[in-house]
């Protein structure tokens, strides 16, 4: 069982020393550290940490916001850590400790609330989409070709022109023309 730490600050002007000291005091043998915004999805050291952890390992952070900025991102990362057979602990947030039954319960409750919130958003979105369709709003991308151009292209294909030549004359990809055929 290895104990890994993850330390992050948002800007170069801030220092990691305090986090690193706290993680070492908590028993972290290896600490992944980076100076990068938590809003960025491409955090190389976090990706290395996630690739490194395995069964029985533990991931420690000083505070939850060091790991992720949103509830969804946090729950996603905690799920990944759990799937790898590792546990998680936040030093400042004692309830976020998946090595305890209470910590697992809290994470499960948060995950359930996030899933509930997501289903509410999906429901409201689909209801709004249905109302828009009833009002006559066309959904999706606008067609590349007008109805007249589509008929003309089909006639040209029937006359023996190649799909590529027809597409080139309209300034579209040949697959756009290919999809016109019944």
Largest sheet, in brief, is: 4 strands, parallel
SS content category: alpha/beta
Average predicted local confidence, pLDDT: 88
Approximate helicity band: 40-55%
The fraction of residues in strands falls at 5-15%
Q: What is the CA-atom radius of gyration, in angstroms?
A: 26 Å
Number of helices: 8
What sequence of helices (H) and strands (E) makes up the elements?
EHEHEHHEHHHH
General form:
elongated
What is the count of β-strands? 4
Strand arrangement within the widest β-sheet reads 2-1-3-4
Report the span from N to C terminus.
61 Å
Unreliable runs: none
Question: Mind explaining what this structure looks like?
Answer:
The chain has helices at about 15-25, 45-50, 65, 70-85, 100-135, 145-160, 165-170, 175-180, and strands at about 5-10, 30-35, 60, 85-90. By secondary structure, it is α/β, with parallel strands linked by helices. The chain has a four-stranded parallel sheet, sandwiched between helices. Helix 6 packs antiparallel against helix 7 (about 165-170). It starts with a strand and ends with a helix.
List the helices and strands and how they pair.
Layout: E1 3-9, H1 17-25, E2 30-35, H2 44-52, E3 58-61, H3 64-67, H4 71-83, E4 87-90, H5 101-134, H6 147-158, H7 163-170, H8 174-178
Parallel strand pairs: 1-2, 1-3, 3-4
Helix pairs in contact: 4-5, 6-7
């Amino acid at each position: 069982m290895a104990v890994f730490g993850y330390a992050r600050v948002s800007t170069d002007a801030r220092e990691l020393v305090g986090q690193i000291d706290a993680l070492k005091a908590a028993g972290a043998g290896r600490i992944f550290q980076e100076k990068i915004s938590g809003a960025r999805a491409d955090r190389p050291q976090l990706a290395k940490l996630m690739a490194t952890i395995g069964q029985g390992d533990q991931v420690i952070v000083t505070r939850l916001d060091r790991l992720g900025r949103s509830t969804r991102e946090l729950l996603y990362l905690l799920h990944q850590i759990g799937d790898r057979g590792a546990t998680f602990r936040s030093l400042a947030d004692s309830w976020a400790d998946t090595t305890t039954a209470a910590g697992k319960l809290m994470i499960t409750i948060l995950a359930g609330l996030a899933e509930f919130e997501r289903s509410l958003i999906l429901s409201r979105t689909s209801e709004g989409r249905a109302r828009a369709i009833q009002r006559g709003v066309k959904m999706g991308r606008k067609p590349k070709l007008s109805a007249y151009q589509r008929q003309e292209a089909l006639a040209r294909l029937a006359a023996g022109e190649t799909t590529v030549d027809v597409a080139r004359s309209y300034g579209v990809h040949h697959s756009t023309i290919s999809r016109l055929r019944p």
